[in-house]
Write a structure and sequence with these properties.
Blueprint: H1 2-5, H2 11-26, H3 44-53, H4 55-65, H5 68-77, H6 79-82, H7 106-121, H8 141-153, H9 156-161, H10 170-177, H11 185-194, H12 205-212, H13 227-236, H14 238-250, H15 255-270, E1 272-281, E2 288-291, E3 298-301, E4 308-311, E5 316-318, H16 323-331, E6 335-337, H17 346-353, E7 360-366, E8 372-381, H18 389-434, H19 439-454, E9 456-464, E10 474-480, E11 492-498, H20 503-511, E12 515-517, H21 529-534, E13 541-547, E14 553-562, H22 570-612, H23 618-626, H24 632-635, H25 649-662, H26 665-668, H27 673-685, H28 695-711, H29 720-732, H30 742-748, H31 751-756, H32 761-775, H33 787-802, H34 806-822, H35 830-845, H36 853-876, H37 894-916, H38 921-955
Helix pairs in contact: 2-3, 13-14, 13-15, 14-15, 14-18, 15-18, 18-19, 18-22, 19-22, 23-27, 25-27, 25-28, 28-29, 28-35, 29-33, 32-33, 33-35, 34-35, 34-37, 37-38
InterPro entries: GAF, GAF-like_dom_sf, HD/PDEase_dom, PDEase, PDEase_catalytic_dom, PDEase_catalytic_dom_sf, PDEase_CS
Pfam families: GAF, PDEase_I
Keywords: cGMP, Hydrolase, Metal-binding
């Protein structure tokens, strides 16, 4: 028998092992072997050695034929080994379970009754239990009704609450109570169809939802006999053989399993070397003939010199009309070729099926409505003969039953797809209602569900920033490529104003149309450069708008490339449309939640500000009004080496007022002197008494800007409204500074970080605080400006304050450096002028590095003092170690820190500004002189540290 041949062992040894195993399994006494075979008897040692070398075969045989009595004996003899070894006492799954494979041979069918009787007579002496034979599960209505009743009795809560038997978990219990079914790939797939795909931990909401959505009716299963039994049956009773093949496929509703059975059965029926089954798949009008790999390695032994023929199909996809298989599908006519010479493209056929062709028989497969649903092709009659008319009629008759079975399986597959889609849509709804606080998490869950639901290789979601704008920009872009080998996906998120060079996405965002592109590479709307940039090959695209509850487009969803190779069809469009509706609701709810959270954070910040700050009093305004203002020249405020430490805060307010008056800005813009006075006093009051970022620093920055406007040629490139905005921006650029930087706001998750985000957090707060002061009654110094001029001043003011963020400075300074280095600057253009204003703001903000050494050293100590205070907060409140710049324990490294700051920020900036105006040379020389001083201190520190280390070594 071929069962022996495939194991590649001596037949007489295997037969003896078989006899020994029958004695082990059925418990017969010596000399009472059920299935005797005449062969040389090897020693028991040889049998034992062979069984040790083929343990998988022995385990498989034991699982198929082992009696309950033998299992109980084994348990009794291994009690000591099983104590405390796991939940089921073995650390293994139960031996008898639905996954246990039971293959019935023809000889076993004939002897089944006698064997059952002999087993039933042997009862355990202690338990008096009957050993019932395992029988195939029936597909009758009675069994279906019983299963449905059992399923209904298992509700959600009593399922979780029901205790498991000792030594068995819930999964094992569920398996062991079910009927025995074959342990083959088709049964695994059938289990996947029956059960929900997600089984999360106990007492979790998604776990309960998964259990509620689990189908209650299980598929009937008919035990299939082995191929050897089919061959033996064909030689004894051809009619019974044919009926057996029909029954073999009559109860199978799993399409993949049915493919395997039909392929195998047709090969046995007509005695062919190779059988290929092509089924029409794909959207209507674009069907393809698909032959999927035959997963069952079908081995047969023929009388051809003892050589076995082993084959396994590969996946093939053909268009109707392509080749003789395609012609059969197109015409519906049977094709029988008796010699290779009759095939004009025999080499192509041989390459296609991977076999040297001698003869071919190809027939269409029809459903109950006489529509062609596939083609079955057999190649090479065994023993070199040709396919006959009898083979053709026999195959045609069998394929009639196959067509009915395939049609039923396809209908069931369609039903299961719809069920799976509805279940996943419910899971999507669950995800959206479960997570409504974080937009990134919501969109990531949406994309993961989309990939699972629509079986696509890539999914992207783009959120539109302003649907009414002429230019479509996206506030966030999410991209989820296909799952990686480790089972995870690499999710990409881009934030900010993102402009996509993708006409398809922009068209959908602008028009709201749905685009389903079957062949992207040949579609003029698709930009092939996108694939070159990403390394991804796009075949098909489905792109739809995402709308909120008001039907306004808030984003675009796009999926690429179905995993089965087909383009997206109408069913995908309908499902994706339903999917985008859920997405729109989820994203809209999350955005609304974020707006509410921002409003609460804004309120919290406002209350905190109001509780600490207050506007200037009328008494303060009157005192300043009647006081005598100093002269700018007498104070030396036009000089770059101005020393502010000789002035107190009152004198700084008076000097600021005199500054605006001397420039003629009050008269030019019709600013009320009382409003200007009130504004300056309130600004001073809204600076907190921190070590460095206080009103003195703001006055210093304002004075530096005033000196730049008085001494350099950049004033010729700036209009008077711009000069006013820059001066006010310098004075207000650090309003309400808390002595901590942007990174600290993020680490501490302060209300400011929630309100303004992670980019330029404090700078946005400084600007908004400035606006709040200007909005206070009697404080709007721009009130008398025309509307256009007012808008211009506010825009320049905002940009000026935001430009003091060094993170933003580093992003744009390379553009400024390139312009001045190449001499291509034109400071009168809006873009370059904005760039110049930003550089001037940074130059004034760090102007302390250009002051004389006495002033610069004192300011450096104030800066580090404030930094060390932040480092103490990080260590004590946030429980994190601060970086070197904020670590008080490393204060001796101050010279080195200052050198790094001067070399990284100050020197490159002032060297470039000198090329704009030579009058910046004074500031550049001041920076270089201070760098020399810091370098000397740093060298002294290094020498002192080296001497100290040498002393320690000598002591040791």
């Amino acid at each position: 028998m071929s069962a022996y041949r495939c194991l590649d062992v001596p037949v007489h040894l295997l037969r003896s092992a078989w006899s020994g195993l029958l004695w082990l399994v059925y418990g017969t006494e010596e000399g009472e072997v059920v299935h005797s075979m005449s062969a040389p008897s090897p020693t028991s040692k040889q049998v034992e050695v062979w069984l040790q070398e083929n343990q998988e075969w022995f385990e498989d045989y034991f699982l198929k034929n082992g009696s309950k009595k033998l299992v109980q004996k084994w348990i009794e003899s291994h009690k000591g080994e099983m104590i405390g070894s796991g939940p089921n006492n073995f650390g293994l799954k139960p031996a008898l379970s639905p996954s246990t494979q039971r293959r019935v041979t023809y000889a076993q069918l004939s002897n089944n009754k006698s064997r059952t009787n002999s087993q039933s007579e042997e009862k355990p002496d202690n338990n008096n239990e009957e050993v019932n034979p395992i029988r195939p599960r029936s597909g009758s209505r009675q069994y279906l009704r019983q299963d449905f009743a059992k399923a209904r009795s298992r509700t959600l809560f009593n399922t979780w609450a029901s205790p498991s038997p000792a030594g068995m978990d819930n999964e094992d219990q569920d398996q062991d109570t079910g009927p025995t079914s074959p342990r083959d790939p088709s049964n695994c797939r059938r289990g996947q169809l029956r059960r929900a795909s997600t089984v999360p931990p106990e007492r979790h909401s998604i776990s309960m939802l998964s259990l509620l959505l689990e189908p209650k009716v299980r598929l009937p299963h008919r035990t299939s006999i082995t191929n050897e039994a089919k061959l033996e049956l064909r030689s004894t009773d051809e009619r019974q053989f044919f009926l057996t093949l029909v029954k073999d496929i009559s109860h199978d509703l799993d399409l993949d399993s049915l493919r395997d059975k039909i392929t195998t059965n047709v090969g046995i029926l007509v005695n062919s070397e190779r059988t290929s089954l092509f089924l029409l798949e794909g959207p209507k009008g674009r069907e393809m003939l698909v032959c999927k790999p035959h997963r069952l390695a079908y081995e047969r032994e023929f009388n051809n010199g003892g050589k076995g023929v082993s084959w396994q199909d590969g996946g093939i996809m053909l268009s109707p009309g392509e080749g003789f298989v395609g012609r059969v599908a197109e015409t519906g006519q049977t094709l029988r070729i008796e010699s290779p010479g009759e095939i004009s493209h025999v080499k192509d056929v041989e390459t296609l099926i991977g076999l040297q062709v001698r003869s071919v028989l190809c027939l269409p497969i029809r459903n109950s409505e006489d529509d062609i649903i596939g083609v079955c092709q057999v190649s090479n009659k065994i023993l070199g003969s040709k396919f006959t008319e009898h083979d053709e009629k026999l195959m045609e008759t069998y394929l009639t039953f196959c067509g009915i079975g395939i049609n039923n399986a396809q209908l069931f597959e369609t039903y299961m797809k719809e069920y799976d889609r509805n279940r996943k849509l419910l899971e999507v709804a669950h995800d959206l209602f479960e997570e409504q606080t974080c937009l990134d998490n919501v969109v990531q869950k949406i994309m993961q569900r989309a990939q699972s639901l629509l079986k696509c290789e890539r999914c992207s979601v783009m959120l539109v920033k302003d649907p009414t704008a002429e230019t479509i920009t996206f506030s966030k872009v999410f991209d989820l490529p296909s799952t990686l080998h480790n089972g995870h996906s690499n999710n990409t998120v881009c934030s900010g104003d993102v402009k996509l060079s993708n006409g398809i996405i922009e068209h959908v965002a602008a028009t709201g149309d749905t685009l389903n592109i079957y062949d992207a590479q040949n579609d003029p709307r698709f930009d092939k450069e996108l694939d070159k940039a990403t390394g991804f090959h796009t075949r098909s695209i489905l792109c739809m708008p995402i709308r909120d509850n008001k039907y306004q487009i808030i984003g675009v969803a796009q999926i690429l490339n179905r995993t089965d190779g087909f383009p997206f069809d109408e069913n995908d469009e309908q499902l994706f449309e339903a999917f985008t509706i859920f997405c729109g609701l989820g994203i809209n709810n999350t955005l609304m939640y974020n707006e509410i959270a921002k409003a609460m954070a804004r309120q919290k910040v406002a209350l905190e500000v109001l509780s600490y700050h207050a506007c200037s009093t009328s008494r303060e305004v009157e005192d300043l009004k009647i006081s005598r203002l100093p002269q700018i020249q007498a104070l030396g405020m036009t000089r770059f080496d101005f020393d502010d430490f000789k002035l107190d805060t009152d004198e700084m307010v008076k000097a600021s007022l005199r500054l605006y008056m001397d420039l003629g800005l009050l008269q030019k813009f019709k600013i009320d002197p009382l409003a200007m006075t009130r504004f300056l006093l309130t600004v001073r009051k809204n600076y907190r008494p921190v070590a460095y970022h206080n009103f003195r620093h703001a006055f210093n920055v304002q004075q530096a800007m005033f000196a730049v406007l008085q001494n350099t040629s950049v004033v010729h490139y700036l209009t008077e409204p711009e000069q006013l905005s820059l001066l006010v921006g310098c004075l207000c650029h650090d309003l309400d500074h808390r002595g901590t930087n942007n990174a600290f706001q993020q680490k501490s998750q302060s209300p400011l970080s929630q309100l303004y985000g992670s980019k330029a957090t404090m700078e946005y707060h400084h600007f908004n605080h400035t606006v709040m002061i200007l909005s206070s009654q009697g404080h709007n110094i721009f009130a008398n400006m025309p509307a256009e001029q007012y808008s211009e001043v506010m825009n320049v003011l905002k940009h000026a304050i935001l430009a003091t963020d060094l993170a933003l400075h580093f992003k744009v300074r390379s553009q400024f450096f390139d312009l001045v280095r190449c001499g291509r600057q034109n400071w009168r253009t809006p873009q370059q002028k904005e760039l110049l204003r930003g550089m001037l703001m940074t130059a004034c903000d760090v102007a302390a590095s250009t002051k004389p050494w006495r002033i610069q050293h004192k300011i450096a100590e104030l800066v580090t003092s404030e930094f060390f205070d932040q480092g103490d907060k990080e260590r004590n409140e946030l429980k994190i170690e601060p970086t070197t710049m904020f670590d008080r324990n490393r204060k001796d490294e101050l010279p080195q820190m200052q050198l790094g700051f001067i070399d990284g920020v100050c020197l490159p900036l002032y060297e470039s500004l000198v090329k704009v105006s030579p009058m910046f040379t004074t500031m550049l020389e001041g920076v270089r002189a201070n760098r020399k001083k810091w370098n000397e201190l740093n060298e002294q520190r290094k020498r002192k540290k080296s001497t100290s280390e040498i002393s320690k070594m000598n002591i040791c």
